[in-house]
Amino acid sequence: MVISARKQRTVRAWLVALAASFLLPGMVFAQSYSEAPALAEAVAAGDLPPVEERLPSNPLVIQPVDEVGTYGGTIRRAFTGPGDSNNYVRWVYDALVRFDSEGAEIVPHLLEGWESSDDFTTWTLNMREGAKWSDGDDFTADDIMFYYNGVVLNEDLTPSTPAWLANTDGTPATFTKVDDYTIQVEFDFPNTLFLTELTFRDGADRTLAAFLPSHYLGQFHPDVAGEEAVQALVDEAGLSSWVDLFMQKAIPPDNADRPTMAAWVAEDSTVSDDVFVVRRNPYFIGVDTAGNQLPYVDEVQFRYFADVEALNFAAVAGEFDFQARHIQMPNFPVLVENSERSGYRVITWPTFGGSDAALWVNQNYTLDEELGELLANRDFRIALSHGIEREEIRESAFLGLGEIRQPVPAPWHPYYPGDEAATRYTEFDPDTANAMLDELGLTRGSDGMRSLPSGAPLRLEISVVPAFGPWPDVAQLIASDFAELGITTDVQVRERTAHFTMRDSNELMMEIWNEDTTAFPFTGNPKIDPRSNPATIFAVENRTWYETNGERGWEPEGSIARIVEIIEEAKTVGVDRQIELAQELYTLASEEVFAIGTVGLTPMIQGVVVINENLRNVPAVVANDWPLRTPGDARPEQFFYGN
Amino acid sequence: MHLFILKRLLIAPFLLAIFSVIAFVLIQAPPGDFLTSYIAELAQGGTSIGQEQIEALRQQYGLDRPTYVQYFVWVGNLLQGDLGTSFEWRRSNAELIGERLALTLTMTTISLIFTWAIAIPAGIISAVRQYSGIDYVITVLNYIGLATPNFLLALLIMWFAFDQFGVTVTGLFSPEYVAAPWSLARVADMMSRIWLPALVLAVAGTAEVARVVRANLLDELDRPYTEMARAKGLPEWRLVLKYPTRVAIAPVISTLGWYIPRLLSGGLVVSVVMSLPTIGPLLLRSLIGQDMYLAGTIILLYSVLTIVGTLLSDILLALLDPRIRTA
Amino acid sequence: MSHAATDPATTAPSTSHDDRGNQVYVAPGWKLTWLRFKKHRLALVFLWLIGLITIVATIPAFFATMDPDDSRAARAFRPPQVIRIVHDGTLTLPFVYAAESARNPRTLKLEWTVDRETRLPVRMFVKGFEYELFGFIPVDRHFVGIPPAYEGSTVHFLGTDRLGRDQWSRLMFGTQTSLSIGLVAVAISTLLGILLGGISGYYGGLVDNVIQRIIEILQSLPPIPIWLALSAALPRTWSVTTVYFAITVILALLGWTRLAREVRGRFLSLREEDFVSAARLVGASKMRIIFSHMVPSFMSHIIAAVTLAIPLMILNETFLSFLGLGMRPPAISWGVMLQEAQNLQSVVNAPWLMIPGLFVILTVLALNIIGDGLRDAADPYAN
Q1: Taking the mean position of all CA atoms in its chain, how far away is CA A338?
Q2: Is residue C181 predicted with pLDDT exceeding 80?
């Protein structure tokens, strides 16, 4: 895969941004603003205030990728039902702060800027004066304080403090309203990752974001509307508690009446409908460099498909204007071949580091003690790693795209631990592998297959979910490579729910899953952190130990304990030390090969992008990852139709 | 006869009770519940929800209650005419099923008409020209229809239509009509697409019907009244069509009732492949996602239709065949 | 009607060849059926075909040219190779042309160009990969293939799949799996059907009522939830082989109702026949009546019904795979192969991956027509 030169630039900038206090330079455009024709008509008819009044005094300026665009048009997309609401979350990327399109820098979005105290314990959030919700109501500090007082501090809604807001003693951080447009957040420790965490709080998500429309949701909250009034509404709706009612009303994709700050808002449909339609938000805070209020495109439609194959068919037939989610990479050739006659172009956005199919090895396997010890033996994992013919996997399952690598960050990322770690043990070397296996006392029988030192047959199992494209194929190729080493390996293709249930009950030996969190090892749910949930099969007993505060499960030792130490330290230190720690973490990971990487940096996950040939301003290169809400980080607000 | 119908009607509630239990047991058989699959779906997307939140949801959905309580709550609501709410869609089951029912029935009815239009003439020709070349050709063609896996045929036709004519046939509506309110243009748009899945469905069913017609007609052709008519010099084709054919297709008509449940479940595969908004994919999805009240309601609806259909068939059979009526 | 005139059952008494007449006269029921069956020429042709398929299913490795799991990326999506006997206008022994693959840099599609210079001979009974005939005789001969001297070259009569596995060889092994599932499932459901249908039909009364209600209930439920429930109930740790047997049993457990109805109907009508009454009058035991008199008299019906049930099982196997409830790779069956072909890239760029569908169609067609023929032949009152 060609990596653009732009990407080679290190991502240091965003980390540096954390250290220095950050303030956006004042508004450069003091001129008047323009708006979409339909909105201008509404203004003329007196149905809408003029654009200057709808925009904040200091609007967000979005730099168009190629050129300033023109208004109009509909973007047709596809989704797969209510469970696919992230499809919409990613598109609107409605957060206080965002990552830029290269995943390099955290930039202001709903917020105008922020400051942190020198010791990183206090963060000041500066809001945009005059910003408005999609119903025209003011967006102020009260909307963040409503989240804090009404949600975080409310035991019915939040039984335990969310990890990202927790002090060292488990109590929530303190939020203070300084004035109508300023909030202060105070921790009892230097929280260097607060801003990164803030990028993940989507206004559209099913978990409640850090800013909520207090004027709308207040009517469903007993603290604001009073218990009696809310209870009456609960009874009327036939629900059992006010929490049910509140949650029903609070989630934008489920409730078209709920005001949002996103560029497009629902008017009368939800993700439970056959077509979920979101239309231009007349109060969106963003403008382009010429002062035109964004978004350019009037409307975005999400059409429901029960079957992914049918969705891909519709993509080939040119029924979508922008679609990467649910497009299957193996269909790339068919998509390209039909692009001309169906009027679209196809580009690829490779994943943001890690591995797109890694073999995770259970370090806490309990169902067979001898096998458990073997899986926890580093030499065994190294031998397995050397036994995999990765070039075959790359050609067969990934169309020859991507790079052979261990699951470490991408080369252009500051966390990259170096080429040696990235390619460690990835060389196809059956001789070394066999020698190491012999050394471990795994002797071959008359049929050429190996047994455990106790004499019991050695039989491995790889569990795989057909979640992302070619994983079952990868599993089969690995299994046949292992068979060449004399290790009988069964592949079990399982349905998602069954696989996850077995993962939680620690019944899996090995699984194929991706490692897509290497750029974010200290926030969210990094896959290398044994405490993450959801995570992989890698260390379930260790996770239980942390979850139960040492009551059950296994206390982690050695490298796994070190991983947790590294992550804990990184949460409280400055950028330079974070980079050092991340590099140490991934060097360690590649030495231990808990996850045996195969191929990475392919467009496997939402990276094959089908775009209407007339749609402009779509960046050729975008950092593609869930924490970056791709394609939200490509700034769909400034996509427009040219001729 | 009346007694017979009365008896069947009296048994029906008991049958329904049994069906509701079976349906519930079947849905509960796979391990886990709706939340297990919901959490798995979220996890695949990278989102996690806390244990407390899961417990709260479990309580909200009533999944923490014992199975038998869940069952009685469901049945209790059903008896009051409340079909329940879908966990996944967060909408009432009545609404979800309702909007798909009409489309499902339209599609399967059209397919039934296609089936008969192909199968009855085929069966007649086959019988009249038994063991001739045309009989073999018809038999083989019918069985090819039966033998072709539906999903394969649907996908091939879809690709062929797109590749050759630039026509896309996913869904029952063109993109511009999907969300549009009902209008004549929308109906026309639907009709321009619905015939294809209906045809795919019809192809599979022709063999069965044609075989019944052929066998029955062969029986009738040997009967004395036919010989008599022939002896009297009635032209062969008129002779065949006048009486024996009527008798021969009677059983086909009388088994019409059996098609009623199939109207609902038929075309699951075609619907999935072609992304059609019918009941089948909804049932499949609700079963896999363990959206149990939705799945249970659809299964029960199917059972009701089966009972009604069988009863209808019995009545039709009795009306058409006096020997049973008097018995 | 012309068909009546040649019916041996009716013409036998009047024929001038006495021994032939006698032969027919003393022939047991199945022989009469066979004589009538032979008239159905189409069925006879298909019987041969089924015979061939059965042989393949018994020793698939002999007919395979390669290990069905042998994958290689550079061999992926290779179109079927045609066996030729004419090279440069001259007649030669059978051969195929070699071919080269290269990835198209724009579409990333693996494209093949035939190399008309290099010929690979195709011979019968060549040496190839080792296998065990019937599970215990080690053999390395194959029905057809490339001589071992051309080590490294492979031949793909039906092309290769996305992993470069030989589809011909996979089809041979898939035939074994799918046919045996069909046969075993039908065997189990036949036993169940005869047993329960027989009991129901012979005893009648309460037993009959109970069994009939069970059948009605089973037939009134949509099959998908039953399949889903049963296949979800399979332990998640079961190996591919165990699941294979489990799927068979599932198919059987749901497939017996039709047969049971048919058997019951036969019993009901036979119970009143003169020869049964006669047997009863001379004091034959119930068991003797059932097994010596009644069962043989409708054996051919059962065979016909069974023949018609096998294709249903085969289709159901592919259907289960389509829904993701059936067997899963690395198992090889027709259903698995079709499921793997069930995507855009196969339909558009590798249509030969649909060939297993032709085999399903052919087999189902054949069994149905044979079953039809048998049924016509088995019915003593049929025209």
Answers
A1: 31
A2: yes
Chains linked to B by 3 or more Cβ pairs within 8 Å:
A, C
Domain edge (last residue) among C123, C155, C187: C155
C257-C260-C263 Cα angle (round to 5): 155
The answer, for A66 touching chain C at a CB cutoff of 8 Å, is no
H-run or E-run covering C145: strand C137-145
Neighbours of B304 (CB within 10 A): 18
Range with lowest mean pLDDT among A153-167, A203-217, B270-284, C243-257: C243-257
Instruction: Determine the structural domain holding residue C91 and report its residue range.
Output: 81-155
Nearest alpha-carbon partner for B24 in B58, B73, B97 = B73
Runs of H (alpha helix) within A200-305: 214-217, 222-225, 227-237, 242-250
3-state SS string over A30-81?
A: CCCCECCHHHHHHHHCCCCCCHHHHCCCCCEECCCCCCCCCCCCEEEEEECC
Residues A501 and B33: beta-carbon distance below 8 Å = no
DSSP C280-346: HHTT--HHHIIIIIIHHHTHHHHHHHHHHHHHHHHHHHHHHHHTT-S--TTS--HHHHHHHH-SHHH
Residue of C nearest to B259 (CA): C220
State the Cα–Cα distance between residues A37 and B312, nearest whole angstrom. Answer: 61
Token pair in block for residue B47: 């989102």
Residue of C4, C228, C354 lying closest to B287 (CB–CB): C228
Of A130, C270, A407, C213, nearest to B15 by C-alpha is C213
Question: Which residues of chain C make contact with B130, given a CB cutoff of 8 A?
Answer: 1, 3, 383
Residue C318 lies in a domain: yes
ipTM for the predicted complex: 0.84
- Cβ neighbours around B300 below 10 Å, total: 20
Q: Residue B81: how many CB atoms within 10 A of its CB?
A: 7
CATH for the stretch B105-288: 1.10.3720
Helix, strand or coil, per DSSP, at residue B272: helix
In a domain, C300, yes or no: yes
Domain identity same for C234 and C258: yes
B82: tokens are 């409340």
Q: Which residue of A has its CA nearest to C342?
A: A309
C-interface mutation test, from B8, B131, B269, most C Cβ less than 10 A away: B131
pTM of the predicted model as reported, rounded to 2 decimal places: 0.88
pLDDT bucket at A85, cuts 50 / 70 / 90: confident
The count of other CB atoms within 10 Å of the CB of residue A220 is: 22
Q: Report which of residues A438 and C375 the model is more confident about.
A: A438
Q: Nearest-5° angle of CA B214, CA B220, CA B222?
A: 110
Tell if the CB–CB gap between A392 and C236 is shorter than 8 Å. Answer: no
Q: Note whether residue C196 is domain-resident.
A: yes
By the CB < 8 Å criterion, does C234 face chain B? no
* A214-228, A375-389, B129-143: least confidently modelled range: B129-143
Asked whether residue C14 is assigned to any structural domain, the reply reads no
Instruction: Name the residue ranges covered by the structural domains of chain B.
Output: 105-288
Region C107-117: mean pLDDT is 91
Contact B273, B158 (CB under 8 A): yes
What's the average model confidence in pLDDT over A78-87?
A: 89
First to last CA, chain A: 30
Domains of chain C: total: 2
Three-class secondary structure of residue A234 per DSSP: helix
Contacts of B174 (CB under 8 A, 6+ apart): B189, B193
Distances (CA, A) of C371 to B68, C161, C363, C365: 46, 34, 12, 10
- Of A78, A105, A93, nearest in space to A24 by CA: A105
Per-residue pLDDT band at A24 (split at 50, 70, 90): very low
Distance CA A260, CA A246 (A): 16
Last residue of a domain, one of C120, C155, C190: C155
The number of angstroms, rounded, from the C-alpha of B62 to the middle of its chain's C-alpha atoms is: 32
